[in-house]
Amino acid sequence: MKVNRNGQAEILTPQQLIELLHHLPYPHRIIAAICYYTTSRVGEVCQLQAEDLRGSKIVFRRANTKTKRTKEVSIPAKLQTELESAELPRSGYLFPGQNGGHMTRQAFDHALRETCDYLGFPGVSTHSFRRSSITALHYAGVPLKTIQKRSGHATIAQVGAYIEDLDGAADAAGELL
Questions:
Q1: Given a cut of 90, is residue 80 above it in pLDDT?
Q2: Closest CA to 153 of 144, 141, 142
């Protein structure tokens, strides 16, 4: 569990995700939903511009990704519903900041921490959405190569580091020896 910014971000259960999205204020709820449903980092999402929503896809510009490669992700139906219900700008940054530019990662983190404190969700951080979605995809049987393509990781080994052992299989495997 992540404590004082040390350790790995907590994995959200489906129920925790629903509750968290319900309680996060706008536009933080939309940012969190995009992070989860596209397996993206919060910094990438905060920098999205209206022009990056292209029909059924979101384009993450290479200048804004950690790997410096453009990432194009399809928009699942649940996320499409969230986007359609939001009053997002038609041009410029989707999530404008207070002093021009885009909302900062730190501003989103502040709202997330307040909401998680209120809900009693320890260890949740901005990276929990990415870890949770990658873990959920893995347990749903999605091949690691497909998850890698969706998340934009450079290697499958990096994807593997995001997958949490939710059912204790690693501990049980020791009993097979």
A1: yes
A2: 144
**Is 105 within 8 Å of 42 (Cβ atoms)?**
yes
CA dihedral 44, 49, 54, 57 (to 10 degrees): 20
CA distance 101 to 90: 15
Q: How far apart are CA 169 and CA 149, in angstroms?
A: 26
Q: If we measure between CA atoms, which residue out of 159, 143, 155 comes closest to residue 39?
A: 159
Q: What are phi and psi of 83, to 5 degrees?
A: -65, -40
Using alpha carbons only, how large is the chain's radius of gyration in Å?
Answer: 16
Check if the beta carbon of residue 125 is closer than 8 Å to that of residue 109.
yes
pTM check: above 0.70: yes
Torsion of CA 99, 100, 103, 106, to 10 degrees: -40
Residue 128's Cβ-count burial label (10 Å; 0-12, 13-18, 19+) is: buried
How distant, in Å, are the alpha carbons of 32, 60, 96, 125 from that of 121? 15, 29, 27, 10
* CA dist., res. 134 & res. 151, Å (int): 8
Please count the other Cβ atoms lying within 10 Å of the Cβ belonging to residue 47.
22
Tokens of 110: 């502040």
Picking from 105-109, 148-152, 156-160, which range would have the lowest pLDDT averaged per residue?
156-160
